[in-house]
Structure formats: structure tokens, C-alpha cells
Inverse folding.
């Protein structure tokens, strides 16, 4: 880690810069994949499957028998863990339900807002080395609570043509039956436009590599909604002298193992503790199966000593981390001052990984500084809110003249007349 | 209007198709504008001002003296109308505030979510023929309730170099002091990247022509948030034999006067009433100052007779209109069945224009079928929701083993170890 002591505020922007990935090339590689799927549907998907996944598939859809097999294969202990995580995620996301509240803005004018499920949603779940069944919980649970009628799941098959059993098990558990063996940019395109086998959806969720991310951006430009823009995962950890260096090092490494582009930031007002954390990182990293990845990520990372707590808070708000761990004595007080972050983990006993899996909060969060304007996934992400209004005779009589005045001033006479014609008829 | 009787369901998609606008060319025209602003800041803005607005500006920022003048110029009657609209919009949007609710998902695990204002937001307000001060209310009021610290407003100057007084008055009323005479794609770029005079913001709101829309899409791709994708404005009106043909015609025309690309759809189960509405449209359109525009929009529009009410509801949900007027006897019952729409106007006395200006609901709504996945602007649009969590010793002891199990199954050992190291320390 690069160690920086009391950087001046003018240097922060530079220090906190995230790596920029050149996307021009990527766009020109992904666009033809999208076009092919749009034009040729399943045929294109099967060809891409041979090309990218080295699998020749007869059926894109996962069969009931494959799901049965998966259910049998997942160990009971994992099933119990998934059940507990599911319960917590359900409890937290259910608390986000909004009741309809009718507001009489003035006599005779009732306005209200209703949350309605997005009827068709698509979930993309990466395959590869780490089978992210936890992401199915994070997306499938709120989709179910919202009441999405059609939930489509795409995930790339392994070279055997099979999908990881934990993925199939978790999807099945949540009542997701439309599971397709399709990965990459082509999966995003398939859900955006629909193919012979894969239903078209209105919003696409889920993480993925740079091809998936670019595909989501491109279809997003055409009006298919996406959960949020994505970048490499990241964590910032704030420490003071009360921090446990071993815990903090483990937290930093849990982020670092995601990929060599993972961002890790350590900030604290205790030089002693910062040094200890670095030593602990060195010790712990050697024991990890993903040692190489973690080492590369850590090498790109920064530890920053700042004397003043206010400066630490300002720096964090400027960085806007996806995950923020507050390993400090006054964690609750400090949390009150954070206004740019995806999810915040308070105190010494709340590692990021509890939120990644099972505490109840969502792990699909804004990276890359997007936390300045974006929220993480929540129940809100699976609904849209429709507004309603109804005026009585009293209502339009009270409000009508103001609307006429404003419409006239905006030179929209037909807008005015839609009110006038009603007011006139009420006079007679 | 094109009159269609009982179309078969297979034909609906074709009938409900919105015009597609070719964007390739547009992108290549807008991208250089964005680049120029990014590179040259104010200098580029002033050059574009000469080129596009035919105005040479010394200062981009509107001066206090100009605001004073505007306040004096706006008639008292319009000020009163704006005050009433503001009050209703405030009342409705304030009701959208969310209290923090701490959820104990299981013993020792507390999770909560806090709405925090997006600290810097930008509002784009078109100039041109119709000075849309109403849009300032629709964006500025929720921004103020949310507590956005910096609100920047860009609007193009007229040829005199001045901004419409109603726009300045309304902005001033809402406490928006950073007002800049910049329009078009260049305004969007200026707020996205910042210039010498114009502060950079994290999210950009507001309607605009196709250049503005494309600029928002392009900066959106780079992670600057935008309110929603945009398309031409549209209304669908559902009628039965209880509808007043004159009212309905006025509603259709209030949409049609927006532009020749405005979408108008009339659906009903009374042929008699449909015919009457068409006759009324013919009569009323002749009296409008924007007659030509309205005629062109109406010529592109459709009226559809469907016998069955269920079919009408299905058709509306497939179309997903931005505005939906239910001019029917059973409006409340029908509203319950609508799941794809931006804003719904119930009954015979609720014209769309009340929602455009003053009932309290927001008029920034999803067009182009985006209502299938997007909500209109609300208080939510000006906040992001940060999640928090804190575990006690009991909490991590209860939950830790499940997290270890899941992390192990996802082959993320460092994630597991961040829990294990804490569990081990609690044993000793």
C-alpha cells in the first residue's frame, strides 16, 4: 500500500482517483454481439456459447431435472446458511415497503403515490470461478417482495454445460423458474430484446465483467432500465487507535481478493495502527488461495494518515466508497456525518462480509464514486411509483384559476383551455 | 386521428409503436460539444452561445440586478398562482419523506437505511417559446425538501441576452441562486464536468430538445446521474359513455400543442363518444394559437374502440403512457388495475394540466413506454439511500457461521476469514 501522511486537501482529488478504463474499444466489440442477438435470437446465443463458453447447448433453458439434481447436490449446511441469509434479507427489504398515503394538497384535491412492481425483470449472475449465488438472494428476494411477475435469470454454463448447483438451488428456492445458460454481453442483449426462448424484460440487474457492464450501458441508452452503472468493487476502512489491526487487515483483504482492480483505502488518525494493519496484511495475505490477486490489489491501494477526524470524514465523503467500515470508537457518531457511501459497517464487529451475504442489507451497491448520486439496490429498484390525482368540483374551482394563469404565462393555451372548459361547465 | 375498431391483440404492438428517432447522427453532433466544454470550459460555452443563441455574453451567471428586475416584472396574479402551485407541490413531496427505521434482522444485528440529499444537482430549464418556469417548481421544490446543498440552474438566454423573468422569479423564490445563461447540450456538459463559472454536479434533471436529451444520455453513460431517459410527451385518455367530449378533446389538444411529435391516444368502449370527441377536437383546434402544431400531432394520433373494459386496461398497460386520464364512471376501480403509467388523472374533473402545474404531483414523468420500469421525479430522485449495519458480539456469533459457509462456497476465503478472525477473538 502506498502510505500518505496528512495530504493537503488540494491533493485529495488526485489521491482518490480511481483507475479509468478505456471503453471505446470495448463498445465496438460489444455492440456487434448485441446486434447479433437482436437479429438472430437463440441462434446467435448458441453460437456465442460455443465461441465464449466452449459449450454446445441444445437447450438454453435449464431443465427441471437439472434443478432437481442441484437441490440434491447442495450440502445441508449451505442450505441452512442460505435460509438464514434469505430470512434476514427478507426482513430488511420488507421494511422498505411503502404504504399508499393519500394527501389532500388542498380541499378537493387528492394526490397519492403507489409502488407497483416492474412486471418483468432480468437477473444476470456471473459464473466463472466464484459462483455468486449470494447475488441471487440480493436480487431475487426484493423482486419477490415487490411482486415482479416474471423474473428471468441468465448465467453462463461451465464447460460441462452445467450451471453451478448453488446457483440453481438458490434460484429455485426463490421461485425463479426461468433460468437460462447464457452469459456475457449476449445474455444482457437477450433479456433486453427477447429471443425465442428468453423473455424480454424491462429492467436488468446484476454484476458482471466489463463486457456485461458495457452491454448494460448500451441497452440502458436505449431505454431498458439497469440497476446502476458498475465499476470495480471497493472498500474504505476508517480506523483509530481502538481498531484491531488483524480485523482491519482481514477486511481489506476480503475486498482485495475480488480482483486486481479492486480498490482498497485505509484512513486513520493512528500511525501506529496503520503500520500494524500493513504488517497484518502482509501476514494474512500469504495464507489466501487468491494470494496473487489480493497482493496485486493491495499494491495499488493507499493508506492515508490524517490527524483531524473532520478531515477524515471530508475525505471519505469526497471518495464516496461503495463499502465503508468504521472501525473506530465513536462509530455511530461518525456514521451520522457520512453522506456519500453505498453501505456503512459500524464498529469492530461488523465486517463487510456480513453485508455481502447475510445481515439483511443489499450487496449490490454503487462503486466508482457513484454513491454521490446513486443508491444501492433495494426494494425501490424493483418497483416504479405511479402518481394519481383526483379533483372534485371544489378542487378544480379552487385550483383552476392558478393553472389557467400559469399555462397562459407559459404560452400553452390548450393547457389553459382544458381547465377553462371545465370551469365554464361548472358555472352553468 | 386514425380510428381503429376492436384491434386483435396481436396488432397492439404495431398500433402502439412510438416513432423511433435515429440517434446515430445526433450522437456524433453532440459528442464534440461535450468534448469542447470539457476541454475549454467557459470559453467554449461563450462560443456556443454566439453560435446557437446568437448572443455574446460577458458573464454566464445571472446577476443579482437581473433577478431584482425579473421580480418586479412578474405580475402579481402570476406570483399568486406560482405560490399556490408551490405549496401543493411541497405538501405532496414532503409526504414522501422517509423516516429512518432501524430493523433488527436477528438478535444483535441492526440494519437501517437513511435518505441523504444528493449534495450537488443541476437543473436544465429550456428557454425558447414556452418559458417552463413550472419545471423549476417541479425540480426545485423536491431539491429543497431533500436538502441538496448546491442547486445549479442552466437555461438558454433569449436573443437579448436575458432570461425570461418568470424563470428567474421562480428560481429566486426557491432559493436557487446559481443561475447560468447556458442552453443545449453544452449546458448539460458544463454541469457534468464543471467549468470556471459553473459548478460540477452529480445529477442532472430537466427536459430539453433532442440535443439536450442526447447530451444527458452521453454523460449518463459516464456515470453522471440523470433523472430519466426522455422522449416526446404523451397522453392516453380512456373514455366511456359518461365522458364529456368537450373535456376530452381539450385534454387531447393540451398534449398535442407540445409538439408535432407529441403522442395522443384515445381509447374507449363508446363509439358514439369517440366520434363526438373527434368532432370536438376539430372544433377546438381551430381556436388555438399553436393550431398547426396541434393539428400535426393529432394527425399522427390514434383513437381505438375496444368493447371490453379488460382489453382497454391491458392495452393501456402495454402502452405505458406518461399521462393517463381516466374519463370514466368507474375511474377509481379502473385506476387500481393500472400498473404501467407515469401519472394517472381520475374522473371528469381532473385534466392533465392540473398535474402539469399545480395539483402537487410531479410533471417530470417517464415517456416512450419507460413507465414500465421508471418512476417520475419525486423526492426520491434527489436523495440516495445509504444502508447501515452494526453487529454486537451476539450478532456476529449468531450470523458468523452462516457467512463463513456461504463465503467458502463462493470460494472467497478472505471474506470468510474476516468473520473467522472475529469469532476466534471472541472465543478467547
Amino acid at each position: 500500500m502506498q502510505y500518505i501522511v496528512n495530504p493537503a486537501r488540494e491533493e485529495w482529488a488526485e489521491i482518490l482517483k480511481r483507475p479509468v478504463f478505456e471503453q471505446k474499444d470495448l463498445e465496438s466489440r460489444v455492440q456487434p454481439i448485441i446486434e447479433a442477438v437482436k437479429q438472430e435470437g437463440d441462434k446467435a446465443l448458441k453460437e456465442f456459447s460455443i465461441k465464449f463458453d466452449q459449450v454446445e447447448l441444445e437447450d438454453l433453458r435449464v431443465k427441471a431435472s437439472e434443478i432437481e439434481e442441484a437441490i440434491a447436490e447442495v450440502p445441508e449446511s449451505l442450505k441452512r446458511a442460505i435460509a438464514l441469509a434469505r430470512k434476514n434479507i427478507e426482513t430488511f427489504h420488507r421494511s422498505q415497503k411503502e404504504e399508499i398515503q393519500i394527501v389532500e394538497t388542498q380541499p378537493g384535491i387528492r394526490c397519492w403515490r403507489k409502488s407497483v412492481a416492474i412486471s418483468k425483470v432480468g437477473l444476470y449472475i456471473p459464473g466463472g470461478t466464484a459462483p455468486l449465488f449470494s447475488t441471487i438472494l440480493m436480487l431475487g428476494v426484493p423482486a419477490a417482495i415487490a411482486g415482479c411477475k416474471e423474473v428471468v435469470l441468465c448465467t453462463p454454463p461451465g464447460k460441462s454445460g452445467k450451471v453451478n448447483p448453488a446457483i440453481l438451488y438458490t434460484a429455485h428456492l426463490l421461485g425463479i423458474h426461468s433460468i437460462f445458460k447464457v452469459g456475457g454481453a449476449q445474455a444482457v442483449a437477450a433479456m433486453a430484446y427477447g429471443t425465442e426462448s428468453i423473455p424480454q424484460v424491462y429492467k436488468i440487474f446484476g454484476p458482471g465483467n466489463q463486457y456485461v457492464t458495457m452491454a448494460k450501458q448500451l441497452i440502458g441508452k436505449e431505454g431498458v432500465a439497469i440497476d446502476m452503472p458498475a465499476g470495480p468493487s471497493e472498500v474504505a476502512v476508517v480506523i483509530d487507535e481502538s481498531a484491531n489491526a488483524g480485523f482491519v487487515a482481514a477486511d481489506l483483504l476480503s475486498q482485495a481478493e475480488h480482483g486486481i482492480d479492486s480498490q482498497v483505502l485505509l484512513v486513520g488518525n493512528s500511525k501506529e495502527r496503520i503500520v500494524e494493519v500493513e504488517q497484518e496484511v502482509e501476514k494474512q495475505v500469504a495464507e489466501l488461495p487468491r494470494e496473487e490477486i489480493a497482493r496485486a490489489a493491495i499494491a495499488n491501494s493507499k493508506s492515508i494518515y490524517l490527524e483531524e477526524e473532520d478531515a477524515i470524514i471530508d475525505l471519505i465523503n469526497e471518495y464516496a466508497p461503495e463499502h465503508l467500515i468504521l472501525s473506530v470508537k465513536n462509530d455511530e457518531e461518525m456514521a451520522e456525518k457520512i453522506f456519500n457511501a453505498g453501505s456503512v459497517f459500524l464498529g469492530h464487529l461488523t465486517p463487510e462480509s456480513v453485508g455481502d451475504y447475510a445481515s439483511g442489507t443489499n450487496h449490490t451497491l454503487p462503486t466508482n464514486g457513484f454513491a454521490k448520486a446513486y443508491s444501492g439496490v433495494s426494494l425501490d429498484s424493483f418497483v416504479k411509483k405511479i402518481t394519481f390525482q383526483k379533483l372534485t368540483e371544489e378542487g378544480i374551482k379552487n385550483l383552476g384559476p392558478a393553472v389557467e394563469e400559469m399555462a397562459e404565462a407559459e404560452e400553452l393555451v390548450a393547457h389553459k383551455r382544458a381547465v377553462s372548459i371545465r370551469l365554464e361547465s361548472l358555472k352553468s
Summary: Residues 37 and 45 of chain A are 7 Å apart (CA to CA). DSSP finds 17 helices and 14 strands in chain A.
